[in-house]
Amino acid sequence: MRNIIAAxxxxxxxxxxxxxxxxxxLLAPEPRWTPAVEAxxxxxxxxxxxxAYFNDLQGLSESELDREFNFVKERYASxxxxxxxxxxxxxxxxPGQTFTDRDYALELLHGNGQQVDVANExxxxxxxxxxxxxxxxxxxxRRLGEENxxxxxxxxxxxxxxxxxxxxxxxxxxxxxxx
Length: 179
What we know:
Structural class: mainly alpha
Distance between the termini: 141 Å
Radius of gyration: 35 Å
Shape: elongated
Helix content: over 70%
Number of strands: 0
Strand content: under 5%
Order of helices and strands: HHHHHH
């Protein structure tokens, strides 16, 4: 029995002295997945914060959203910063709210009259995507307005034609029939 204990102790001491690092993988749990690259190309945890904020907004009631909008807008007006700008952009993009204003969001994305360095912008890809979508939305809104004006004008012309037709039919009724 002493020989077995001595052999086991000798094995542990040899393993510890020569290659204890080789035992660690045997004891450590295997990862469930392996990353495609050793380190991420971009590590920007603040991006997740802004997107998490947008996700959190979805769960607020209308009164909570109104309070949040007023707070963020006042804070941004007194001390404009990148985080406040993004929060205000995301709030103004929420559909169906009293403060929803896509034109203001686009203005904020363009820097609210200030020069925004797109390379140093907090979320450059998202900013460009939102600018493109909002500019497209603005163009579609303009076209819709033009089409509505055109439809109103056509409806007015149709009404005028109906009135002319009515006048002509009344005139024909008043005229004696030719023999």
